[in-house]
Amino acid sequence: MNPPGKDTRIELNDDELDDVVEKIEDALNRNDVGSAVNTLEALEDDDKFEVFDELDLEDQAELLPRLDPETGADILVEMHEDDQAAVAKRVDDESLSEILDEMEPDDAADVIGDLSEERQQRVLAEMDREAADDVRALLIYPDESAGGLMTNSFLALRAEMSAQKAIDALREWGPDNETAYYLFVVDRDRHLQGIVSLRDLITAPSDKLLHDIMTTDVMSVPAGTDQEECGQLLRKHGFQALPVVDAEHRLLGVITNDDLVEVIEDEATEDAFRLAGVPDEERVFSSVGDSMKKRLPWLVVNLGTAFLAAAVYNLFTTTVDALPFLAALPSIVAGQGGNAATQRITILVRGLATGEVESEDAMRVILKEIWIGLLQGLALALVVGVGVAIWRNNWVVGGVIGVAMIGNMVVAGLAGTAIPFLLKLIKLDPALASAVIVTTFTDCCGFALSLGLATLLLRYLG
To answer: Of 22, 81, 446, 459, which sits 20 to 30 A from 244 (CA to CA)?
Structure first.
């Protein structure tokens, strides 16, 4: 980053980036690694990552160990976790350890956590002892927990310190911009007692004790807290950092704002994939085999639910044989129900993910969506019912389809809201309430309502 007030160079455009990538690839093909390194390190920080990310994996693995360790650390932190793990596995232990020494403990732990147990120990043994100890302390926690997300690089102050001594300690520590938003106050046994903002610390009289300026009402999370809950706290309260404590309320580490923003993005991406029937994140240029492995199982499940809907339809083959035009109409009812349910799932899953909606809101939300489903059904029934009646010159046919539409839209409102809440209740991701589950209800009910009513009123439909 350039200092404030200093002119910054305009970032390279796409054509310029492509030219630099080609230049580096040519140098590597000629085995002129030094030229490739010089070309990359001459770029601005953001451009370094953009160019490095465009290289193929083998070129990345060859280039990364030759870069300045600090540059390598900056690049590795920015990489997608799958790419990060792939390139780290191809870099030798000594080079990787030098890069990890330049990273924050939580970022280094993320990289090491993707290595085999045997290689983890080798790389840790090559690292600076203090840095390795910090990383080991984080590796005991699951990746998607507060403990796995936190950094143990923070400054803990004592309540008996004066503001001036705290400022002196802060200067000596020399924190980066991620960890210095708040300063945490602990007792002799590291129990979290309070928090002091930088602004309060700087503006306080130099002899003022932290005990007198700290805020004691501090929100913290246990180390085992799920990362999604941490992200919700950030979003709800606007925190810049979140302290992590053990069962005795001793301060273990701090989750910084940037990590929690990444969590929110990751959780939103995960929900979007699951709503589309892709349980794990897939990238545009994933291999064909990887894409098939992730997509096909859910398509097979969806195929099973399609057979269920077909079985419902098959119950009314006599009615369809008697009046063949009925074959096309149930799909209109079923399709609109599925579309409406998808709208509800998308809105509700987002609300559950961000903390806007809680489990105790279930009944209120379900009743609201049933009411909306009824109103939508009435509006659509008017359109489709009149249209079908005019088409067939039979108002009973129009009435059958209109009533079926109303009923299925109510089912969409109920299923599209109740199922995500039920999944959350049994500790499953609500995003799993995708078309695979909910459209089963709307398809089956759409066919059953339209063809069932048609069967009851068959003599009036001819």
So the answer is: 81
Cα–Cα distance, 180 to 166 (Å, whole number):
12
The three-class DSSP label of residue 176 is coil
Pairing of strands 182-186, 156-158: parallel
- Can you spell out the DSSP letters for 399-450? HHHHHHHHHHHHHHHHHHHHHHHHHHHTT--GGG-SHHHHHHHHHHHHHHHH
Residue at which a domain ends, from 223, 248, 272: 272
How would you label 246-264 residue by residue, b for 16+ Cβ within 10 Å and e otherwise?
eeeeebbbbbbbebbeebb
Residues in the chain: 462
pTM of the model: 0.59
pLDDT, tens digit, 9 for 90 and up, residues 227-275: 878 877 877 777 778 899 998 999 998 887 777 766 666 666 666 666 6
The verdict on 319 and 258 lying in the same domain is no
Task: Return the number of other C-beta atoms located less than 10 Å from residue 66's C-beta.
Answer: 14
CA-to-CA dists, residue 421 to 370, 424, 431, angstroms: 15, 5, 10
The answer to whether residue 267 is domain-embedded is: yes
Tokens (6 digits) for 143: 């990746």
pLDDT surpasses 80 at 183: yes
Spatial distance between the Cα atoms of 358 and 430, rounded to a whole number of angstroms: 12
Domain around 244: 156-272
Rounded-to-integer distance, Cα 397 and Cα 324, Å: 13
Here the CATH number for the domain that contains residue 130 is 1.25.60.10
